[in-house]
Amino acid sequence: MYSPVGESSVRPEQGDRGAESTGPPAVPKPHPLLVERITHADIPAICALLKKVGDGQPAGLPSELLKAWQPGPLEFTSQMEGVTYFAARREGRVLGTIGCELRHGTCHVMVLAVDPEARRQGVASALLTSATEWAKRSSAPSVWVDALARFLPVAAFLKRHGFTEAGTLHKHEFGEDIALFERVL
Questions:
Q1: Which among 117, 91, 97 has a CA at the least distance from the CA of 43?
Q2: DSSP string, 159-185
Q3: Rounded to the nearest 5 degrees, what angle is found at the Cα of 103, between the Cα atoms of 120 and 130?
Q4: pLDDT at 137
Q5: Considering only the top CATH level, what class is 33-184?
């Protein structure tokens, strides 16, 4: 009798003895990642996520920038107008968020944040895919992202997802260089 790895089965020749074959333990499948638009009920979890991500940033970032990245619930709510936010959840827990807006007919990704404990698990990719699909449904011809130029892993991530570096704004945001990335849809 065939048994997938990790499942037990009684072989016919064992009859009533009930002995089971043992194999390596089954690796549990991760629960599926769900990406959907946020609701007002998600705001406290999103703000907690943004604070956690902001607190984990490297030293040397301007304090004004970190403060802007970590809005409280009231500030976040006031920033929501005209912005579509998605959250990535696993087992009901918010693992990441992305916010995008239509600006001059194109889609601008305003925020992309992933819980440090959930990184390298496809969360950012799923969020970026959702935002890109939303942009297509909204008839946007392109998606663009501005990111701190010092965050080299962000540049590599965006390039893997079809974005090209379009330029740099020097000393643009609180004295930081900002790299611009675009993906034509």
A1: 97
A2: HHTT-EEEEEEEEEETTEEEEEEEEE-
A3: 30
A4: 96
A5: alpha beta
**Residue type for position 182:** E
> So what's the pLDDT on residue 60?
82
**Alpha-carbon gap, residue 140 to 39, rounded angstroms:** 23
Domain extent listing, the chain? 33-184
SS3 category, 153:
helix
One-letter amino acid for residue 16 of the chain: D
Predicted TM-score (pTM) of the model is 0.78
| Strands 106-114, 164-173: pairing kind | unpaired
Dmax over Cα atoms in the chain, in whole Å?
77
Structure tokens at 148: 């701190």
Mean pLDDT by 10 residues, the chain (185 residues): 33 44 64 92 94 84 78 88 95 96 95 93 96 97 93 92 96 88 97
Joined tokens for residue 183: 């993906």
Scan for tokens 């007002």, then name that residue: 40
**pLDDT score for 31:** 79
